[in-house]
Design a protein that fits this description.
Layout (H helix, E strand, L loop, with lengths): L1 H6 L4 H15 L5 H21 L5 H9 L11 H25 L6 H21 L5 H21 L5 H30 L2
Helix pairs in contact: 2-3, 3-5, 3-6, 3-7, 6-7, 6-8
Length: 192
């Protein structure tokens, strides 16, 4: 597992490019709504590339600035980062897109809401800390692509208002779970 903890994020850009090419070739012209749902995964992979590779440093930024830790990799470390990102982004995002394509397109809309909500937290942090890893992709991809997806689904009446609310709720709850873990579980470890 240590190898995965140390290297999972190195796959993000490769997976984003590969998946985007695949989506353009096989999904874009046949099902634009499904393309937009899958695009949330692509965008989030690029977001993680900025957070962890170029320029990277999100773990150290989070620990130092938000948790006031003097240790760059404590209490948020590579293992915790893995267990936050893999279930949400590498499992729930593509699983939701698969289910959106096979069962009901509404299943995937939460990913657009989560993408926008999480990106808004990066923008919010920038008011105090200026740049933070993930900010640029948040502003130029997560928010515009997520909002466009939400708008497209609403303007084309692809899903009900109730499904929009459920998607928004799931996005909010997912972001809340991440924040609760960060500030209720990890933060107390800094100053027990």
């Amino acid at each position: 597992m240590k190898w995965l903890y140390d290297n999972w994020y190195k796959s993000t850009l490769f997976l984003a490019v590969y998946l985007l090419v695949f989506l353009i070739l096989f999904v874009l012209k046949t099902d634009f709504a499904l393309f937009l749902i899958w695009l949330q995964f692509v965008v989030y992979l690029i977001h993680q590339f900025e957070e962890y590779i170029l320029p990277g440093g999100f773990v150290a930024f989070f620990n130092k600035n938000l948790l006031q830790s003097k240790i760059a990799d404590y209490p948020l470390d590579k293992k915790a980062s893995f267990w936050i990102n893999i279930p949400i982004i590498f499992i729930a995002f593509p699983l939701s897109a698969i289910l959106a394509g096979t069962l009901d397109i509404a299943i995937g809309i939460w990913t657009a809401y989560f993408s926008v909500i999480n990106a808004a937290s990066h923008v919010g942090m920038s008011f105090k800390y200026k740049y933070n890893p993930g900010l640029l992709v948040s502003m130029f991809l997560n928010i515009p692509v997520g909002l466009y997806t939400i708008y497209f689904f609403a303007s084309e009446n692809l899903i009900s208002f109730q499904h929009q609310l459920i998607g928004c709720g799931i996005g909010l709850l997912t972001q809340a779970a991440v924040m609760i873990y960060g500030f209720r579980v990890l933060k107390p470890k800094v100053n027990p």
